[in-house]
């Protein structure tokens, strides 16, 4: 099935952890961040996708200073990181992986750092079931978008150059050595300054466009409304890759959304916990019960629709009505192909959404809240089995 609407966006394509001096949080988007914990401190490597600009910054000191929650106080020669499978990888300060005969020593000396790193990893990467089930809990109600300038990093500070002492006056080669060190420091600073200036220019251009969209575009143009809505969706921490297609109609008063939903089989089948057997610390994965898996699935597929409804009415002030439909891919015995089948579709006005939001805020589960939607098409058993339905037309009239 081709997309019914002109705008299509894939959200949450890559999951990563963003790190800054004020902490760390899960976000999703292009790859560009990595973390290393060592005796020299905790470092983050980040880049601006498509710009060729990258940074390496220390977010904690080796003596434990810093507030990222991943500080380190070891005074040793090892680094520790987590690979994509959640396994600890130990390396020497020079970068080479620790040989087998030294791994026990590395684990012993980096035990505390390893434990904190794994606990942080679980919190932001292995609580998949909770992220999926509770995704709807950050649903906004109704508000008017306000532009506020996003801050940018401070200008890099110049290096502290070494002074020429008595030895520099007496020994020419010592003077040359000091000059060489200062030259390298200034060259590195100039590169940092150039990267910072380029990144700031990109930032200011994006801010100018965002200011126009929020203060004028979303009141004047359907294309601007779609662009801004896409940026809102892209800023959300989506727990799974999600394909959303949408289109604004009737001068911005109507919005139609199609969302590609996962299958029950796509839900997490296990949870992870940290096992401590000093000096070893590692992840152990345990299965999730079928009933728990079904609950996560029901919360998620309905919660996605509620989140999209809330984001739409909050982002687009002229919007009066949203038609949202969810579909999944299933094997067809008739065509012997994977086909898209709609499992729910609803049409919600702004006033009705405000009432629904009050019920949601009171703690109602997403799948039960759907029963309060006056214009709903959904065939679902108590056990959560869906039957295919025909979705509402994008410009459905009440």
Strand content: 25-35%
Query: Which structural class do you get from the secondary structure elements?
Result: alpha+beta
Approximate shape? flat
- The average pLDDT is 81
Instruction: Give helix and strand order, one letter per element, not per position.
Output: EEEEEEEEHHHHHHEEEEHEEHHEE
Strand order of the largest sheet: 1-9-10-13-14-15-16
Number of helices: 9
Q: End-to-end span in angstroms?
A: 27 Å
Percentage of residues in helical conformation: 25-40%
Rg on CA atoms, Å: 26 Å
Query: Which residue ranges are poorly predicted, with pLDDT under 50 across at least 5 consecutive positions?
Result: 14-34, 44-75
The largest sheet, given as strand count, sense and whether it forms a barrel, is: 7 strands, mixed
Number of strands: 16
Pfam families: DUF4236
InterPro entries: DUF4236
Domain DUF4236: 3-56
Q: Mind explaining what this structure looks like?
A:
By secondary structure, the protein is of the alpha+beta class. It contains nine helices and 16 strands. The protein has a domain of 112 residues. It is flat. The two termini are 27 Å apart. About 13% of the residues have low confidence. It holds the Pfam family DUF4236. InterPro entries: DUF4236 (IPR025330).
Question: How are the elements arranged and paired?
Answer:
Layout: E1 7-11, E2 15-20, E3 23-28, E4 33-38, E5 41-48, E6 53-61, E7 78-82, E8 88-92, H1 100-109, H2 111-126, H3 128-133, H4 166-170, H5 172-220, H6 222-234, E9 242-249, E10 254-260, E11 270-277, E12 280-287, H7 290-315, E13 321-332, E14 337-349, H8 350-361, H9 366-369, E15 376-380, E16 386-387
